[in-house]
Structures are given as C-alpha cells and as structure tokens.
Specification:
Order of helices and strands: HHEHHEEEEEHEEEHEHEEEHHHHEHHEH
Largest sheet: 5 strands, mixed
Mean pLDDT: 88
Distance between the termini: 10 Å
Helix content: 40-55%
Strand order of the largest sheet: 6-5-4-7-10
Shape: globular
CATH architecture of the largest domain: 2-Layer Sandwich
Length: about 400
C-alpha cells in the first residue's frame, strides 16, 4: 500500500505524460479521502475530476488495497462509498486535559485501533503529562500490534491557546503550569515522531467534519463548555487560525460589564458566568464537598431546580456570545461539546434562545445548534485527524 501511495505523489520525468497525470489524480483522491469516507460523486465534486475518471482511479486504488468500497445511498439513489483502508499508516491522537489524558491510535480509514484515558493530578506540570503520554502510547502500540515505524505522526491538543509561530502554550490556558512551555519541540524530542499541535476546541471542530456527522458542512463552530470555554472554527471547509493561531476565544468575551474578575485579567468574561467551574462554585454552596460536572449532569437530569436554573443562565450567556459569532461568520452548524454533553436539550435550549435573541433573525433561524455526537472523545479524535491533514502519508515508509 505504501509503495503505491508513494507512486501517486512521485513526479515523472515528463510531468505532462499520461502516467504523471494519473498519479496526480490518484493523489488528489487520496487527499480528499483523508477527511473521511465519500461517495464517488462527492469525490468528483471535491477534486473537480469527472465521475468516469474518479471511478477508474477508485478501481485502481481498490486493487492496490488503498481504499475499500461499499454500497450506500445518496439523495435516495444508489451510490458507492469510498474510504481509505490501511493500518500501515497510523496516527496518534493525544488530548491533554486539566485532569485527564486520552490517547487514540487511528488508521487512514478513520478506525480507532486502540484507545485509553487516564486521570492526571490537578495542577500537573507539562513534563508529567508528557511522561504519562509516552507510557500510554507504548502500551497502546503493543496492545494494537502497531509497529512504531507505521506511526506517521502525533497530533496533540491542550485546553488553551497555542502560538502557532513558536509551538508554545500562550497565556490563557486552563493549564497555567504549561504557559510558555514549547509543547511542539518537547513532544518531538521525546517521541522522535512528527508532531502537530492545536487548541482542543479547534480539534473538536476538526473532529466534527472528519469523524462526526458534519463532513459536508463548510462553515461550522464547535464550542467546548468546560473549565474554560473556547470555540473552534471551520470556515469555507478549512480550520481557521487567524494571524498567530489564537482564535475562537469566546470564553473571554465580556458578558457582564462590571462582573467578576476573570483569570485573563478582564472583568465579566463568559467563563466567569458559564464555565463548569462557575457552575460548580454556585451549586457547591452548602455542600460538604464540591460537586463535579458529572453531579451537575445527574442533578439536571433529575430536574433539580437550582441546577436547572444555573444551566439555563449559563446557556443563555453562551447563546449571546454565539449570536455575535454567528452574525460575523454565518455558520451552518454550531456544535456544543464538553463534559455537559449528556444534558442534550437541557443545555441546548437556553443556548438556542440566547442565539435567537442576539443574532440577526435570518441567521438565528438558519443556524443549527446541536450537541456533539462524539462526546468526550471529540478532541482526541480531532488530534488524530490533524495528523492526516498534515503528515506526508505518500512518503511514509
């Protein structure tokens, strides 16, 4: 499989020859499939190739075991779904959290080969998180029977902004002990593999258009509501990073002019009103021990009045911020993720009300607000997808 993939990218001594053109077209289809399975008609639209050319190339790639096909339906018609099919090119996804570490191994066909999540101590240093990641990775490779040489790269995310110019964790991360730490260079040094890093909300957005049900959506916002609140943006089919890679920081949009001081130094930020940290503080009053986000979910599903009020207030505030975002970029879909995902409409309804109140009517009415179907795995799956977006699979050996 690898040698055939390499041949699709290799240049011919005669770049205008039929064989060179065929190889280029093969590579275009392989790259299109790296975002997930697609029908032959979708591949034709994505690559600009004719349906006949796509059909011929898919047949060649299937013979070489690079892709697998299966019958499906599209717009009520019979179609052929195509997906990449190989375990000889494996991506590692790592999600560093405030209290957890999650890893996955994925192949080009977007199948999870192995997965593990462990707890980390609150306030852990970056070196502790990385050492734990190394141990878990070694364990998963052995468990899945994957050779290290088959790993094409490692994607990693953290809950906080990353300066893409340097690969360093920027001010504002939920992991304050990591601020200033060059995550990119340290991971590359320790793992001796190509590494790609991003903010966890950006990875959540990427996962929704690769692993999730929104592969056909060109403009999407993923909002993670947790200890912090951040948004990942897919604009015109591509992740949006802005000037230095720090985008979607809606957690630091001012909601209450003279509100509480936020960890960023400003007052009345969305995080001071709607983060799970704030919800925990409000609902832990009078309790012997602080409650957890899981307790919030459990109490809300049991219709506890105080919990429902706190969630409603938080949802309205998030919706207000999203109204401003929607007015600016007009997304088709807003996906909500994070530890409260199990709440479903209990959280989504106030977010929708806030959005409708603060967005232009046409935008509010035409924007779908939904919960992530990927749950707590969204960020780590996005980290694996990040590898396939950037790694040079065609030259992997």
């Amino acid at each position: 499989m690898v040698s055939t993939l390499r041949s699709t990218a290799s240049a011919s001594s005669n770049p205008g020859s039929q064989s060179a053109l065929r190889r280029l077209n093969e590579q275009r289809i392989v790259e299109a499939l790296m975002t997930g399975p697609a029908t032959q008609a979708e591949l034709a639209r994505t690559t600009g190739l004719s349906t006949a050319t796509v059909s011929n190339i898919v047949r060649v790639l299937q013979d070489a075991a690079i892709v697998a096909t299966e019958p499906t339906t599209s717009s009520g018609r019979r179609a052929l779904s195509v997906r990449l099919n190989s375990n000889s090119a494996v991506a590692v996804g790592i999600d560093f959290g405030r209290r957890h570490l999650r890893l996955v191994l994925s192949n080009l066909g977007y199948d999870v080969l192995a997965e593990e999540a462990i707890s980390l101590p609150l306030g852990h240093e970056a070196d502790v998180g990385i050492a734990a990641a190394v141990d878990v990775l070694d364990s998963l490779l052995e468990q899945a029977g994957v050779a290290r040489r088959d790993v094409v790269g490692v994607g990693a995310g953290i809950p906080g902004p990353i300066d893409h110019r340097t690969g360093s964790v920027a001010q504002g991360a939920i992991l304050p002990e990591w601020v200033g730490f060059n995550l990119l260079s340290h991971l590359e040094d320790v793992l001796q593999l190509p590494v790609y890093i991003d903010n966890d909300a950006n990875l959540g957005a990427l996962s929704e258009v690769t692993w999730g049900p929104h592969s056909s959506v060109s403009n999407l916002v993923f909002v993670k509501i947790g200890s912090g609140i951040g948004a990942g943006l897919i604009l015109n089919g591509q992740p949006f990073y802005g000037h230095v890679g720090v985008t979607g920081e809606i957690g630091h949009a001012t909601i209450v002019e003279h509100g509480l001081v936020c960890r960023c130094g400003n007052r009345g930020c969305l995080e001071t009103v709607a983060s799970t940290t704030t919800m925990v503080e409000l609902l832990s009053r009078g309790e012997k021990e602080p409650i957890t986000p899981d307790d919030i979910v459990r109490r809300a599903l049991a219709h506890d009045a105080a919990t429902l009020r706190v969630i409603d207030d938080a949802g309205l505030a998030v919706g207000r911020s999203l109204g401003n975002v929607a007015n600016l970029i007009n997304p088709e879909v807003i996906v909500v993720g994070g530890p409260l995902a199990e709440l479903g409409d209990i959280l989504l309804d106030p977010i929708r009300r806030g959005l409708m109140r603060h967005a232009v009517p046409l935008i509010g009415q035409s924007t779908t607000v939904t919960m992530s179907a990927l749950g707590s795995r969204a960020e780590v799956l996005g980290a694996a997808a990040l590898v396939f977006q950037h790694a040079d699979i065609s030259h992997h050996s």
